[in-house]
Amino acid sequence: MNRKNPRYIMNKADNQNSTYRRIIIMVSKTSDDSSLSHTKWNGKYHIVFIPKYRRKAIYGKLRADIGQILRQLCGYKNVEIIEAHAMPDHIHMLLKIPPKISVSGFMGYLKGKSALMIFEIHANLKYRYGNRHFWAKGFFVSTVGLNTKVVEDYIRNQEKEDMIQDNLSTKEHVDPFKG
Annotated Gene Ontology MF terms (predicted)? Predict the structure, then answer.
């Protein structure tokens, strides 16, 4: 048996015959786990946040700039963007955040720094949103376990789903008694 193989852990058996017994740990070869020096982790979060007053302002050049800014800021903190999509009035992100960073601390950093960078590029937005306040307070966060693929598909297809819902809700109401 190869003792250097990480799939096996050797434990001392009962002291009766001082032999070792083998405990096999199943390790997936396609694991999404990441590691730090003494930590193995898989912390994925689905995060949604909105502009102040939920204004439909994220489109065109601003949308492209926000995407670039968010990628840059996530890179600074070693946060992996698995999937992200910017809607006109909110942003969905599926992030892999290291355990040394709290989710709320990271979101404060992401929203605060991105607002400053957005106002540097688009100075005219200061009149609409006030100085340094592009994003609304708060955010939605949900942990993602083994259903990563489902959340990725949801984020990727969110725009289509919203259009379908809008089309369903625009039908005129027909009074069943008048025809």
Answer: DNA binding; transposase activity
